[in-house]
Amino acid sequence: MIKTVIIEDEKPASRKLERMLSEFPEIEVVAKIESVEEGIQWFSENEHPQLIFSDIVLGDGLSFDIFEKVPSKGFIIYTTAFDQYTLKAFKLNSIDYLLKPILDEDLGGAIEKFKSFLPSDNSVSSQEIKQLIKKDKTTLSRILVKIGYNLKIVQTHEVSCFFSENKIVYLQTQERTYPSDFTLDELEDVLDEKKFFRANRQFIINSDYIKNIHTSPNYKVELEFQPEEEITVSRDRVKDFKDWLVS
């Protein structure tokens, strides 16, 4: 039997997923967890399961917090309404990422994928998981940001640029600037490359918000709703920038 834990703070969603998993005779749900606090306690006191189905946004935080405090050797399949955490999810031993509402065929595919990573010794290399990320790359379409104790969804097409300042990455919209949980390197991997370009080490810009481009002495870009007057494209990125503009 495949020992399995469900992490989900919405009881109807938890019950539905458990019913769906009951269609797989090899799956045994051994626990259902509803919060970060409960998850940390459970994983600290119990033998870790082979497979975990986990929502990301819980009532008292993100489920990532559980596994950052109590690392799990089990595989994680994230089940969530938000698509912004794909990259971070795969860094925490995730092998799949299902957007709600979960479809039967998607769930079945995720379980089959889990089985494919189980050789006779039940081990898997980090390199295999990294290869899976490349195959299943998801383009980020919206980002969840925190405003005090509140959460807000920002569509990526509303963002004029992402920029790094004092080791924090911010996103700029017409409304305001928001901090994010990403690094610029992570964003570069998951943003739509036709819309977003890494201008330099500090900025990723959105083509929809370019107002002016000054070509001398270096390429300098002026954006709408930006934190600075001009953004300079790195010298070694100028050719790529020109190609990107007409792609």
Percent in strands: 25-35%
Shape: elongated
Helix content: 25-40%
Rounded mean pLDDT is 84
What does the main sheet amount to? 5 strands, parallel
**Unreliable spans:** 120-127
Order of helices and strands: EHEHEEEHEHEHHEEEEEHEEEEEH
Strand order of the largest sheet: 2-1-3-6-7
Helix and strand content put the structural class at alpha/beta
Computed over alpha carbons, the radius of gyration is 21 Å
- DSSP strand tally: 17
First-to-last CA distance: 51 Å
Supply the number of helical segments.
8
InterPro entries: CheY-like_superfamily, LytR-like, LytTR_DNA-bd_dom, Sig_transdc_resp-reg_receiver
Domain HTH LytTR-type: 143-247
Pfam families: LytTR, Response_reg
Modified residues (4-aspartylphosphate): 55
Question: If you had to describe this structure to a student in words, what would you say it looks like?
Answer:
This is LytTR family DNA-binding domain-containing protein. It holds the Pfam family LytTR. The modification 4-aspartylphosphate is found at residue 55. It comes from Chryseobacterium ginsengisoli. Residues 143-247 form the HTH LytTR-type domain. The protein has helices spanning 11-21, 36-45, 64-69, 86-91, 104-116, 126-135, 184-190, 238-246, and strands at residues 2-7, 27-33, 51-54, 57-58, 61-62, 75-80, 94-99, 142-147, 150-155, 161-165, 168-172, 177-179, 196-198, 203-206, 210-214, 220-223, 231-232. The protein is of the alpha/beta class. The protein has a five-stranded parallel β-sheet with strand order 2-1-3-6-7. Strands 12-11-10-14-13 form a five-stranded antiparallel β-sheet, covered by helices on one side. Strands 15-16-17 form a three-stranded antiparallel β-sheet, with no helix packed on it. Strand 13 (196-198) and strand 14 form a beta hairpin. The chain is elongated, with a radius of gyration of 21 Å. The protein starts with a strand and ends with a helix. Residues 120-127 have low confidence and may be disordered.
